[in-house]
Amino acid sequence: PLNEIGAPLTGCVSSGTMVVPPAYSDLGKAAKDIFNKGYGYGVMKLDIKTKSQNGIEFIYSGFSNTDTGKSGAHLESKCKVNNLGLSFNQKWISDNTLSMDITMEDQLATGLKLGLDTMFVSSTGKKSGKVKSGYKRNHMNLGCDLDLDRAGPTVHTAAVLAFSGWVGGYQMVYETAKSKTTKYSVTFGYQGSDFQAHAHLNDSTEFGASIYHKANKNLDAAVNLAWTAGSNNTRFGIGTKYQLDKDSSLSVRNNTYNTFIYWRVNITLSAMINGKSVSSGGHKVGMAFEVEA
């Protein structure tokens, strides 16, 4: 089955017209991708993905910042045991950080997802853990994560409800050590087959909105704006993506030009041009490679 924005529904049983809304972090994702996906100026990046015959996926990613000279990499492996609903994700980062994520889905109850995320920094001995849970059913998507901090657990909760294309969500962070809510966010919007609009409020200080429209099968466009209380500046942006053919696309975001080419190897070239002072420099360029086998 498909939800109202054409994305496959997972983690639930199909019954009639089942509608499972996205997670809170994915509200407005279509517009966010127009502005963020593929733009990598100032960074050289290499991504390699491959999968073994027994289904284990390996991901290598490396980057180098052309401004600061900082570089880094990580190696990740993913393994799934489908008959048990289990997945294992291990990651090693070049700053000597090791992490493991274990997830079980649709076993204790349909739509219920449970997970344990652990991290260890060998250079400092720092350890951390997080217990994660999520529940997806018709017209709702719930989530609750618990950071295992020695000073006191931190609770991250989120809920999204949907009906007839309208969606509303709430997210908050509660620190038990301080016995108070430290962050919260509210989002309300509409998601149709070719049009989405969302508005959000963060901590009663930041207001934002985004609009996404799929004009036709090849052209996507998005607009976003944001305003912070106590400031007279309203941030505004407009972006488009045009699918030239099945293997290439062109994206434009404000004064940023980006070309994305795919033919077994993905090569992303991006540039940021300082339109106010073209002759004085300050321009940035970037390149990224993605290999999948």
Automatic annotation (TrEMBL):
InterPro entries: Porin_dom_sf, Porin_Euk, Porin_Euk/Tom40. It comes from the Eukaryota. It catalyses: K(+)(in) = K(+)(out); chloride(in) = chloride(out). It is found in: Mitochondrion outer membrane. The keyword ATP-binding does not apply. GO terms for cellular component: mitochondrial outer membrane; pore complex. Keywords: Acetylation, Ion transport, Isopeptide bond, Membrane, Mitochondrion, Mitochondrion outer membrane, NAD, Nucleotide-binding, Phosphoprotein, Porin, Transmembrane, Transmembrane beta strand, Transport, Ubl conjugation. Belongs to the eukaryotic mitochondrial porin family. Interacts with ARMC12 in a TBC1D21-dependent manner. Interacts with MISFA. Non-selective voltage-gated ion channel that mediates the transport of anions and cations through the mitochondrion outer membrane and plasma membrane. Forms a high-conducting channel with a stable open state and a voltage-induced closure with a mild preference for anions over cations. Involved in male fertility and sperm mitochondrial sheath formation. This is Non-selective voltage-gated ion channel VDAC3. It comes from Xiphophorus couchianus.
